[in-house]
Amino acid sequence: MSVIILGIESSCDDTSAAIIRDGCLLSNLISNQDVHMAFGGVVPELASRAHQANIIPVVDRAIKQANISKSEISAVAFTRGPGLLGSLLVGSSFAKGFSLALNIPLIGINHLQGHILAHFIQDKGILKHPTFPFLCLLVSGGHTQLVVVRDFLDMEIIGQTIDDAAGEAFDKCAKIMGLPYPGGPIIDKLAAIGNPTAFKFAKPLQQGLDFSFSGLKTSFLYFLRDRIAENPNFIEEKKADLCASLQFTIISILLEKVEKAAKATKITEIAIAGGVSANSGLRGALTQLGAKNGWSVYIPEFRFTTDNAAMIGIAGYYKYLKGEFSGHDVMPLARFPL
Fold first, then answer.
1. Mean pLDDT, the chain, as a whole number?
2. Is 334 part of any domain?
């Protein structure tokens, strides 16, 4: 009998539902919240209210698009954390009600684990995926981690940011330049036409495999302050070069640690995951570094890089096979270590 998982993702500002059958994707619907653009970032209260309005229609469309009935669903998997608590409460509450109504298991998923397991989503044929063990660079707006993945549910963090995440550095620096939210994709687009060596910014002298991005943000802020004092139009005149140089610096920081971790662990299966893995500069640089070092490199499809329920569904599928279910007293967690 097939195992069919309804996945629900509501950790931030995207309401998403997906259907996974035996590891294969049948549907993956996402409702975005444009309301936050006017505020330059996600407003938690507005996000949770939008989730309340969106979750039932999104789940209904996901089930219909998968061409299944609710009675065929084996279990419901939901994002337990980390994320915005109000947003997580909407998703977890719906999942509990759905589970109780159909008398099917409930599976709480770590959002970060879902990002990593997105590499195993099967869609329209066999998808090339990493073999165990592999090293995954998980980069998003809230997290930057190096993870050794030994099995579907066996993961160990060997390096992580001690302050800000790479995605946050992109977005905060974009805001300093006056770029609209979300700034990361705009920096990526402008960087394609800029000079990555036009300007140099501070790189942290962080030992080991941990990351740090707060010093880079400060360096970027002070650099612009001094240049604007000399030329008020500096940002507008040099926007593409600024974006290219910033992106080059962040990618250099990330990949220096990846290379160091690969040598330390002797792992040659290398993957990236998370929202920042959509960055074209990072994808290209990792591919080049992999060719240089003889690695097998795995880069997720763009639609599986940002928050989506397919990754929650696939994580739920592997937890279902292991019988790892949650009780209905399970609570969402704003902070939920991998």
1. 94
2. no
What are 18's strand-pairing partners? 7, 28
Structure tokens at 280: 């074209």
Measured CA angle at 202 (ends 200, 203), to 5 deg: 110
CA distances from 209 to 34, 219, 255, 330 (A): 36, 22, 11, 33
State what percent of residues in the chain have pLDDT above 90: 87
How far, CA to CA in Å, does 305 sit from each of 116, 174, 228, 302, 327?
10, 20, 35, 5, 29
Residue 166 sits in the same domain as residue 291: yes
27 three-class SS: strand
Strand locations in the chain (E): 4-9, 15-21, 24-31, 75-81, 106-110, 134-139, 144-151, 154-160, 269-273, 296-298
Q: Helical H runs in 66-84?
A: none
Is the torsion defined by CA of 118, 166, 260, 297 positive or negative? positive
Dihedral sign for Cα 225, 230, 234, 238, please.
negative
Task: Give me the helices (H) in 177-279, please.
Answer: 183-191, 214-230, 234-265
Judged by DSSP in three states, 16 sits in: strand
Could you tell me if 83 and 52 lie in one domain? yes
Indicate the pLDDT class of residue 182, thresholds 50, 70 and 90: confident
Strand 15-21 with 269-273, pairing:
unpaired
Per-residue model confidence as pLDDT tens digits over 66-116: 999 999 999 999 999 999 999 999 999 999 999 999 999 999 999 999 999
Number of domains within the chain: 2
Report pLDDT for 225: 97
Q: Tell me, what's the pLDDT at 60?
A: 97
DSSP H or E segment with residue 62: helix 44-65
Location of structure tokens 């001690």: 162
Q: Flag whether 327 is in a domain.
A: no
Question: For residue 196, is it within any domain?
Answer: yes
The rounded distance, in Å, linking the Cα atoms of 217 and 219 is 5
Q: Which helix (H) or strand (E) holds 94?
A: helix 85-102
Any idea of the CA torsion for 105, 110, 113, 118, to the nearest 10 degrees?
Answer: 60
